[in-house]
């Protein structure tokens, strides 16, 4: 039977215990630095050691997230943190940053590495390349289809896929919306979730009616009924999202997926209807099969509500001065969470008091009954109520975890002879321990102790996680040993086994020597300008500009036929084999022999990431769009100090930021029921508008991916000399909707700055 891993989130010690006791094979968690959930409780140094020991005792692996971008000034602290994690006995690290990956592979060669979904890998070339850097497992993008998963699983890298929980609407690692609006970078673990805010679709500046206003808010992924497809596809690890969730949520989700996985492996029937009601009571935004099954539009997005949907509870039938009367369609208990759905803002509360129709205080009521609740603010007759938390369910889940049902199965063998100490061996299938009693066995004055009495005493595992599956006892006739001695030798053996289980790894290598790279003369790089265009007319407006034109997809072919020279840029999500692409924007492109320039979407924020790209032939490296002048200068300075030379550093100085790239298209969702390649994005100008009036232009590319642009245009042209002084030599300019007159003005300004430097 093929072993598959159920991987659970642990945002707290309580959640970790819930995951372990309810059947997880591994947990992932964050320490207090460099994790992509900066606002989870996370674990400090001592808590982390405790968590790892607890998980390992039960045979559960622990993966720690080091999956943020790490700026140059933080790199030393990051490596010290990784060394501490290795000493703490973690099983693997989950990495986003290419520079961090490179240095961990160099300095910690024994550490197992997993590539985070934040690394934005979505095809075989990227998977193969990361294997060269020691990556054992790839956490594929949530946008991956089942057909793609099957292909990826044919590689010799383990594939981890999300099976349950919240979905990002943007490709992970490619979302700058939170950083753009709130200066809280999702790539740095501080996402403010602007995708869960209200938006209006604009067509040619006019509002378009939609079913709801949460146009970027996906439902939650739930694959319980399809887990067999993923097992059969070859997926190695099934990942549950939810490091911000309560322990009760973790307990229920892990239990549900444990049942589904085990049923498929044992060729038994499983139906999600036995678990869905509990999952819905704990947390859901509506459920979807997501991109695994190519669901789009209303199947994927919940336009009506960005938070917990709960379950229907009833409706308000009358309103008095201090109370409301509610007709129930579900049971209600004191301590349940309730939300009254209102037009402007919902009202949520815990039920502390409720009354029957005679006004008497009661602790619970059944579906079909009518109860009164204390009135809170303005409420209208007919308002609907949902149950947002279920006190009885949560108490049952807490009790389940507290009972510690998970057991470590062991075999025990004992040898007892008169005049000798008790000898005891305990084996868990992987390791064996041996213990002796302090006192020896004596000759019995009467019948002596039989095997049954000895077995009964040695079998008392008590509060330990162990459960004996077989016991062999060799006992000499007419022998006596005190129960105290048997208890002691049993405790010593089980303690020794527990200690061995809690410490999984022996000493692992730490290579602290600095890279031996010979100094070379300072290279002199000319100033370059790259003009990225999306329309033929934009390229035509640049015919006299000094710089390279970058075109994408079929536009590059069109320009070539028109006699306009342009280098070919690869999409940020490359779905076709590489051919003529010179500028690449994701990891798989590094395997293309023609790639010489990298775009900002590779998220380069440190000198080690620069070196990573150079090792694969990239000569001109654009730094992340999240880098400003100070960060760019720090990267260039660190690179010079470390490698004795400079590199061709690039920065985006003009154009809107691409705040998102998404497989979900708002235009198709609102106007075409989620249809693929509907073509509407090419017929009119569309934008999203938030509640503050900010407008985010939208455009769809040839692969039917939606690009959400920043509401403001970045214009750092006047700072070009300062960037040049800091060591930047390549300047990227992105045109999306600009007309010919604007393009020529931009070119004129850039060329004026170039003249100042000559």
TrEMBL record:
It holds the Pfam family DUF3656. This is DUF3656 domain-containing protein. PANTHER family: 23S RRNA 5-HYDROXYCYTIDINE C2501 SYNTHASE, PEPTIDASE U32 FAMILY. InterPro entries: Pept_U32_collagenase (IPR020988), Peptidase_U32 (IPR001539), RNA/ubiquinone_mod_enzymes (IPR051454). Residues 387-502 form the Peptidase U32 collagenase domain. It comes from Massilicoli timonensis.
């Amino acid at each position: 039977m093929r072993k598959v891993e159920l991987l659970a989130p642990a945002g707290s010690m309580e959640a970790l215990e819930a995951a372990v006791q309810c059947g997880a094979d591994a947990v992932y968690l964050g320490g207090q630095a460099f994790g992509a959930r900066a606002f989870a409780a996370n674990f400090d140094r001592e808590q982390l050691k405790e968590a790892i020991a607890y998980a390992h005792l039960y045979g559960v692996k622990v993966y720690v997230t080091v999956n943020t971008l790490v700026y140059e000034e933080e790199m030393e602290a990051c490596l010290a943190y990784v060394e501490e994690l290795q000493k703490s006995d973690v099983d693997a690290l989950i990495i986003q940053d290419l520079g961090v990956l490179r240095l961990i592979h160099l300095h910690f060669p024994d550490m197992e590495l997993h590539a985070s979904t934040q690394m934005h890998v979505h095809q075989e070339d990227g998977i193969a390349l990361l294997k060269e850097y020691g990556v054992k497992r790839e956490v594929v993008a949530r946008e991956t289809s089942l057909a793609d998963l099957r292909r990826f699983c044919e590689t010799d890298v383990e594939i981890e896929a999300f099976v349950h929980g919240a979905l990002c609407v943007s490709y992970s690692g490619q979302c700058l919306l939170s950083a753009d609006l709130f200066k809280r970078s999702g790539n740095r673990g501080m996402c403010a979730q602007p995708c869960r805010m209200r938006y209006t679709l604009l067509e040619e500046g006019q509002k378009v009616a939609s079913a709801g206003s949460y146009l970027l808010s996906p439902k939650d992924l739930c694959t319980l009924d399809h887990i067999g497809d993923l097992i059969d596809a070859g997926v190695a690890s099934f990942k549950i999202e939810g490091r911000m969730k309560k322990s009760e949520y973790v307990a229920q989700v892990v239990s549900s997926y444990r049942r589904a996985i085990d049923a498929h492996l044992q060729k038994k029937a499983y139906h999600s209807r036995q678990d869905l009601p509990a999952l819905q009571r704990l947390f859901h935004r509506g459920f979807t099969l997501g991109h695994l099954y190519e669901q789009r539009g209303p199947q994927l997005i919940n336009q009506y509500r960005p938070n917990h949907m709960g379950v229907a509870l009833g409706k308000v039938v009358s309103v008095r001065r201090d109370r409301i009367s509610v007709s129930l369609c579900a049971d209600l208990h004191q301590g349940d969470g309730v939300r009254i759905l209102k037009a402007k803002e919902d009202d949520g509360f815990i039920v502390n008091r409720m009354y029957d129709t005679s006004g008497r205080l009661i602790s619970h009521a059944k579906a079909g009954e009518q109860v009164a609740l204390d009135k809170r603010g303005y409420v209208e007759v007919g308002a609907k109520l949902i149950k947002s938390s279920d006190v009885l369910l949560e108490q049952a889940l807490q009790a389940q975890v507290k009972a510690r049902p998970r057991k470590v199965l062991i075999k025990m063998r004992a040898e007892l002879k008169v005049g000798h100490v008790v000898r005891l061996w305990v084996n868990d299938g992987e390791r064996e321990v041996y213990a002796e009693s302090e006192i020896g066995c004596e000759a019995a004055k009467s019948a002596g102790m039989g095997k049954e009495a000895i077995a009964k005493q040695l079998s008392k595992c008590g509060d330990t996680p162990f459960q004996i599956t077989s016991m062999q006892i060799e006992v000499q006739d007419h022998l006596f040993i005190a129960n105290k001695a048997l208890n002691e030798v049993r405790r010593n053996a089980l303690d020794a086994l527990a200690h061995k289980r809690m410490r999984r790894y022996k000493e692992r290598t730490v290579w602290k020597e600095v890279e031996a790279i010979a100094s070379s003369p300072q290279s002199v790089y000319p100033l370059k300008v790259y003009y990225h265009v999306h329309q033929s007319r934009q390229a035509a407006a640049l015919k006299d500009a000094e710089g390279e034109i970058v075109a994408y997809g079929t536009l590059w072919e069109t320009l070539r036929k028109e006699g306009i020279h342009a280098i070919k840029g690869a999409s940020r999500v490359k779905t076709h084999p590489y051919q003529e692409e010179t500028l690449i924007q994701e990891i798989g492109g590094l395997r293309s022999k023609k790639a010489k320039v990298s775009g900002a979407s590779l998220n380069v924020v440190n000198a080690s990431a620069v070196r990573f790209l150079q090792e694969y032939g990239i000569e001109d490296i654009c730094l992340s769009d999240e880098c400003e002048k100070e960060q760019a200068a720090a990267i260039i300075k660190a690179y010079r100090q470390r490698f004795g030379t400079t590199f061709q550093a690039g920065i985006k100085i003009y154009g809107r930021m691409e705040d998102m790239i998404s497989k979900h298209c708002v235009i198709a969702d609102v106007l075409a029921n989620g249809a693929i390649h509907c073509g509407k994005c090419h017929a009119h100008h569309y934008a999203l508008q938030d509640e503050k009036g900010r407008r985010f232009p939208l455009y769809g590319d040839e692969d039917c991916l939606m690009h959400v642009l920043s509401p403001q245009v970045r214009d750092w042209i006047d700072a070009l000399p300062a960037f040049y002084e800091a060591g930047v030599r390549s300047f990227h300019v992105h045109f999306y909707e600009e007309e010919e007159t604007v393009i020529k003005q931009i070119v004129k300004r850039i060329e004026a700055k170039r003249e100042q430097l000559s």
